[in-house]
Amino acid sequence: MRRTAAHLLFWVVFYVVQFYYDLVSISGLKIAPAMFLNPLRIIAGAAFVFYPMMYWIVPRFFARKKYGRGVLWTLLLFGCFVFGDAIWELRILNLCPACWEELRVKQPDYYNYLHRGLLHMVLTRLISLGFLYQLLVQQAIPIGLKIGMAYFKQRLTTVKLEKENKELELHFLRSQIAPHFLFNTLNNIYGLILKGDREKSAATVAQMASFLRYSLYSDTADNTLGKEIHLLQDYIELEKIRRNHTLVNFTFEADDPSLFFPPLLLMPVLENAFKFCPDTPGSGNWIWVQLVLRQDYLYISVANSTGEMRMPAVGGGIGQDNIRRRLQHYYGWNHTFVTHNEKDMYTVVIEINNAHDPLYRSR
User: Fold this and answer.
1) What whole-number distance in Å separates Cα of residue 82 and Cα of residue 118?
2) What one-character DSSP code corresponds to residue 295?
3) Out of 95, 115, 248, 275, which residue is the most buried by the measure of CB atoms under 10 Å away?
4) Average of pLDDT values for 269-278?
């Protein structure tokens, strides 16, 4: 209904413009009823060609590369238009004897041309293609609007698909983190209960609930760096329960905790650090996490010892490639993502400039 109303409004505006053009034109008929019917003839003819062409011939034939049949239907449509337009023009003039007289005085050549008969009018207009040029001028505005709206809809669909793709990536990340994390944490809580440590087991359950609530229900658009820091703290505390021989240090400094930050962006890196850092007695293994936000510059470093184990590329959750894609999506070229795989240490460093102005933040 709204679309029909928009089309009707367009043709009404088109009619008003054409009426004004005929009114100020030297050759325009300014005698009623021709002065009202002639613009209507032009608009009706344009609509007669536009709708079959754009909604049937183009999508059914030209879009499917059936060019021969498309050209035939186009020529048939053009012939019907020329025939109908000639009939309508003569009919309007016959309703207005004064218009005939005005044409005889001011445009004698055209007056004589119209008196040669309908068949002569149609054949000469088809052969000379003069009406084709006039029709193309008339069709330029509606076709231009149609193409512009189609392009806008395509871009809107592309943006929507891109947004849905990012949301699917985030949901995939959440589904990857939750199962094995939940299994390990439940084992830790079970061990604390067996030891009779009620206070620590209760605190662990609260931390686990907070972590899962955030990972499952966090809103991308409203997520902040402060929430992400709290999530990392909970995750580290939960992992430390089962790691008695690994030194874990998390330091952070943020002058604006309300800064937008993509949810769970750092989880694959941190999860990987715990996964590939050995937890053996007397090994002196460690995990160091550092986060610094100063004005518009955000620095993040996650490093861990590897011992004799060779650290693979980031593989937790959505993996290293998807972390890069998410960073590119949110921050464009205003970031760097660097990994250092040394003999007994693995480091991931993320630097973000213009952190207060991400490229993507919509829901």
Assistant:
1) 11
2) T
3) 248
4) 86
